Amino acid sequence: MILIGTREGKRTDYMLKAAAAENTPLEVLPWEALQNQPPWEKLPEDLLPGQSPTERLQGAAVKIDPPPAQTFHLEEMAKSLEAYKNILEHLAKAECRFLNTPESIRLLLDKRRTKHLLGDSGIPVTEIFPEEPSNVEELLELMERRRCYSVFVKPRYFSGAAGVAAFRVHPRRDKFCLYTSCQLKKNQLANTKKLSRTENPKEICHLLDRLLALDCVVERWHPKANFHGKSFDLRVVFQFGHVAFIVARQSPGPITNLHLNNQALPAKSLGLASPILDEIETICARACSVFPGLSMAGIDILLERGTLRPRIIEMNGQGDLIYQDIYGENLIYREQARHLRCEEITSVNDGK
Ligand SMILES: Nc1ncnc2c1ncn2[C@@H]1O[C@H](COP(=O)(O)OP(=O)(O)OP(=O)(O)O)[C@@H](O)[C@H]1O
Ligand SMILES: [Mg+2]
């Protein structure tokens, strides 16, 4: 088994532990080796003598973890992302078995296409608008036209809540409110690990203008169910046809990502009725079947306030790092190691 990942870090450390526990020989092919030079030239001798990455991967069982973050600046992230997508395109040529194929990972990076494919299959998702406003004026017009005064603005391709903004405007346009972890620092849009809330219209418009100049999607802001006075949603890791783990993420604000100081809760503590849990499992299974070559996905799901009806917020082809699992039984990675060893993965890539 080969893990394309960072040399060090939790994903690599715990995948190595899982592989050892499952007697699956595992080698790490570091992202740095693919990034530091045109990757499809020969790799540095000390890493993999005389072999290109596609040669190196031939016949292996391969998992692709995300590349290391290279920048906190949103405008620069767009450039690294292009390089990442390029590498995935090249990796797709390797004749090997992938946990998730490079094509499926690449497709899920695109929030707009993912939502359309899910929506076309009748799977409940948070509503995405077809319009692509490129400044605040156009955004406000869209909100007015759709009579939707609370929206999410999200960069189409980023992850880790980078540039995600929840924006609410009073219908009379005299009161604005914005939650986001992104800030303008030295006139650059920077991703931070702190969620902030502001009502200053000038500040909000300036930030949204810069954000919307990137490729963004706009969605309806769906109110989430509450637990003990705070809203929550779920990260479900679905793999090999079943729910492997659910973690609830509880937040005083509308953005629940755990690196933003939000609280993780065991899903059991929510006391969700079994028909809801069954519906979540069914939705996840249907969602994964839309994407060929996908054995595992981290799926963000909200339960609508009041009805508790589940809707998919987004799917992530590399969304399987769950601290509550790795620091516990490490079940997610162990199951992956077992499947990769046993050649049970269906996503065989014949390199064509
Ligand atoms: N339409 C929506 N309605 C309500 N909440 C939303 C909506 N879209 C996003 N959110 C909230 O914002 C969070 C971040 O959004 P999203 O998951 O799409 O971004 P991301 O950058 O891909 O995150 P990550 O890659 O870390 O999962 C979600 O987990 C959810 O709490
Ligand atoms: Mg998410």
Question: Care to describe what's here?
Answer:
- The radius of gyration is 21 Å and the shape is globular.
- The chain has helices at residues 10-21, 31-35, 53-57, 74-91, 102-109, 111-120, 136-145, 201-212, 274-289, 323-326, 331-341; strands at 2-5, 27-30, 61-64, 97-98, 150-155, 165-169, 176-185, 188-198, 216-220, 226-227, 230-239, 242-251, 263-266, 296-303, 310-316.
- The chain contains 11 helices and 15 strands.
- Mean pLDDT is 92; it is low at 346-352.
- The protein folds into 3 domains: 2-100, no CATH class; 107-125 and 224-317, ATP-grasp fold, B domain (D-amino Acid Aminotransferase, Chain A, domain 1, 2-Layer Sandwich), CATH 3.30.470; 136-220, no CATH class.
- With 352 residues, it is of the alpha+beta class.
- The strands form 3 sheets. Strands 10, 11, 12, 13, 14 and 15 form a 6-stranded antiparallel beta sheet that branches.
Q: What are the low-pLDDT stretches, counting only 5+ consecutive residues below 50? A: 346-352
How would you describe the shape?
globular
Bound molecules: adenosine-5'-triphosphate, magnesium ion
Overall radius of gyration: 21 Å
Give the assembly state of these chains.
single chain
- How big a fraction of the residues is strand? 25-35%
* Count of strand segments: 15
Class by SSE composition = alpha+beta
CATH superfamily of the largest domain, please?
ATP-grasp fold, B domain
At CATH level 3, the topology of the largest domain is: D-amino Acid Aminotransferase, Chain A, domain 1
